[in-house]
Amino acid sequence: MKAFQDCYPMKYAHCYGCGRENAMGLQLKSYWNGVDTQAHFTPGMQYSGGVPGHVYGGMIASLLDCHGTASAAAFACRERGKDMTQEANPARFVTVSLSVNFKRPTPQGVELCMRAQLLGVEGRKVRMSLCLLAGDQVCATADMLAIELLPEAP
Amino acid sequence: MKAFQDCYPMKYAHCYGCGRENAMGLQLKSYWNGVDTQAHFTPGMQYSGGVPGHVYGGMIASLLDCHGTASAAAFACRERGKDMTQEANPARFVTVSLSVNFKRPTPQGVELCMRAQLLGVEGRKVRMSLCLLAGDQVCATADMLAIELLPEAP
């Protein structure tokens, strides 16, 4: 199964969090999970919070943000009756706003799961609800609004 | 002038974003700027967004989050009539919620400035308004709620 990020147009594939063209980056990969989406990632032990043993907040926001923008593209394509992974030049979204609620400390050394649920598509904007889990524990939730980049003038 | 993060108790000084004990981390440093606070940081070129030339959203959230938790500690100490940089065991805050609004693309290769303004202290909670600037351009704003860690049982 092709990850959403593996379908990004080459010129938009350099994101540190999820770009396949960024060799130094995290290379997050997002996929369908039924009608929702999901991604899995295990942060390295250097990404500690203030207290060793917990993941730092910036990593949690990064994982939610990158999974969210990829999911926004996939959701928008689906709403338009298309399959993102089959498109030659699929939509590319960026974040307008991201609100993260940190529910409990996120443990290090375990695989994290990020999920996104579509709330609505309106024109170029996609609204989603996201969460980050460690096992069956929800460690963070987020609301996100993403917007599609306009095509460049030829 | 001592940075807020340089006053963190040793056991809380391992944050990837701002811990002085994390040799692999970003080592963000926050200071007073009048009644507000500020920090400066120039992200490495690997921290690109999808489009090279812009900083990725996760880095922006990370810088705001780390500057915010450090500022929360400094603001709380000040409200209690103390100077954080003179305390042997100052307060340590973690994030409850962080809402980031991305106002415009954040350029790479320039020093960024993060600022925090106190909105209110209520018991263990500190509410702040934050922004991230590149030169005189506001690239992102954020609202943040942070909470003081409880002292551990002896």
From TrEMBL, chains A, B:
InterPro entries assigned: HotDog_dom_sf, THEM4/THEM5_acyl-CoA_thioest, Thioestr_dom
Topology relative to the membrane: Peripheral membrane protein
Family stated for the protein in its record: Belongs to the THEM4/THEM5 thioesterase family.
EC annotation from Swiss-Prot or TrEMBL: 3.1.2.2
GO terms of molecular function: thiolester hydrolase activity
Key words of the record: Apoptosis, Cell membrane, Cell projection, Cytoplasm, Fatty acid metabolism, Hydrolase, Lipid metabolism, Membrane, Transit peptide
Main location: membrane
Gene Ontology cellular-component annotations: cytoplasm; membrane
Residue stretches making up the Thioesterase domain: 53-137
The keyword NAD is assigned to this record: no
Reaction(s) catalysed (UniProt annotation): (5Z,8Z,11Z,14Z)-eicosatetraenoyl-CoA + H2O = (5Z,8Z,11Z,14Z)-eicosatetraenoate + CoA + H(+); dodecanoyl-CoA + H2O = dodecanoate + CoA + H(+); hexadecanoyl-CoA + H2O = hexadecanoate + CoA + H(+); decanoyl-CoA + H2O = decanoate + CoA + H(+)
Source organism (scientific name): Lampropedia aestuarii
Keyword hit for Cell membrane: yes
GO biological process per UniProt: fatty acid metabolic process
Localization (cell): Cell projection, Ruffle membrane; Cytoplasm; Membrane
Protein name listed in UniProt: Acyl-coenzyme A thioesterase THEM4
Matches recorded under Pfam families: 4HBT
Enzyme class: hydrolase
